[in-house]
Amino acid sequence: MQTNQRAELLAVVLACLRDPRPLDTRSDSDYVCKGFAFWESWVDRGWTGEHADLWNLLAVEQRSRVSLVSVSWVKAHATQIDVDRGRVTYEDKIGNDGADKLAVAGASLHQVPSEVVVHAHERRKLAINVQRMMVCILQARAEAESSILEDVVDIDRGSEMGDCEVLGDHEFDSRFGDEDLSEVHDCIELDVGCMELECTDLFIDDESHPGHAILGNGL
């Protein structure tokens, strides 16, 4: 089955086989450019990925070739803005646009068998379903982790408030002496054995709890 990658690779192979002159080839396929750039690193063992027949044919041609061949990457579907900003040269834009037109015209000459079309649609549908399933799994996991975390925090907060809400007379006097703390709105830290409270409003309710320090709404 012909794919974009195979078509891009075949174009480079045919250019090398048909033209013995030094070639400066341009391609918008990152797959082809990287594979060609490192052909000497895999030529001895042979290409182990897809389209091995074409890659190995290209490697044999490269080994026996006298003239130099280079394959450079160009931006696909470039616009005039890309040219103005230096992302691609005007010549490369025109050449790539012309190659795309030839590819579309060539593809229109070949009728794809109906079973190939059906198989392609089935694979696409399967891929979409798998992606949706993975998204649902990740969402369910995130919700479960969030619920567990909230339960743990609620348990910790309950134990802290139950043990440390009120300071008795003796402990309060030893910490704060005889200072007038009828209403204090300050940022303090209290280590009450089991927790640290930051930025707490501390006040004295002389009527209901004489001599007791009550933690206010700063929690």
Question: Can you give keywords for this protein?
Answer:
single chain; 219 residues; alpha+beta; Nucleotidyltransferase, domain 5; 3 domains; four-stranded antiparallel β-sheet; two-stranded parallel sheet; 56% helix; elongated; disordered C terminus
Give the helices and strands, then pairings.
Blueprint: H1 4-18, E1 23-27, H2 30-37, H3 39-42, H4 52-64, E2 69-73, H5 80-84, H6 90-108, H7 114-164, E3 166-167, H8 169-176, E4 183-185, E5 189-191, E6 196-198, E7 201-204, E8 213-215
Parallel strand pairs: 1-2
Antiparallel strand pairs: 3-8, 4-7, 5-6, 7-8
Helix pairs in contact: 1-4
Write up what this structure looks like.
The protein is an alpha+beta fold and 219 residues long. The chain folds into three domains: 4-112, Nucleotidyltransferase, domain 5 (2-Layer Sandwich); 113-163; 165-215, no CATH class. It has eight helices and eight strands, in the order αβαααβαααβαβββββ. The chain is elongated, with a radius of gyration of 37 Å. Mean pLDDT is 77; it is low at 160-167 and 179-219.
Tell me, what's the shape?
elongated
Number of helices: 8
Helical content class = 55-70%
Q: How is the main sheet built?
A: 4 strands, antiparallel
CATH architecture of the largest domain: 2-Layer Sandwich
Compact summary:
The chain folds into three domains: 109 residues, Nucleotidyltransferase, domain 5, CATH 3.30.420; 51 residues; 51 residues, no CATH class.
